[in-house]
Design goal:
Largest sheet: 12 strands, antiparallel
Helix content: 10-25%
Strand content: 35-45%
Order of helices and strands: HEEEEEEEEEEEE
Structural class: mainly beta
Shape: globular
Mean pLDDT: 80
Number of strands: 12
Length: 179
Amino acid sequence: MRHTTPISRTTRLARAASIATLVVAAGLAGTGTALAQGPAAPTADQKVDGVMVVAGNSCSWTNGSTSAAAPSALTVDRTTINTPGGNLACGGGIAASLNNNPAFTFDDAAGTARTDLIDITGRQSFISCRYKATNIVWDRDGTSRKYVNRAFTATKASGSFLCPGSVTTPVGDASMLFR
């Protein structure tokens, strides 16, 4: 018979915190190459790609649909990000899903974007954690449509007692690219 070492409560809580941080950031994340904007620019695809790495694990998606092209106000369609309609996938045995269609507004003069609400659930094994973050501010990267987050805190909406009450995402730990 094979002997396995029990996992301590501290280790389980640390994993839950990592899951929560990854899940919140993954729903907000995106990256890619800069796209030209302006009169000579090609027509926008009305898509958003995302990727986030936390504690060595990565969550990503491609080709999420948006209701308009940035910098117009838009919403992101969660059904085009979550599986089976989308391709949101995470490493490290984590599963994530976006629970709302986040709305974004842009201020090109200031080089910022704002998200009204991000509502995300993450699962690993038997642990499920749901978090909500509001009024997230993003800074544009140069003249591209890539935006990098300012620090924000997401609050636990529901889930296991192992889930932390809130998780903070530091500046630059999430980004998104509208194309």
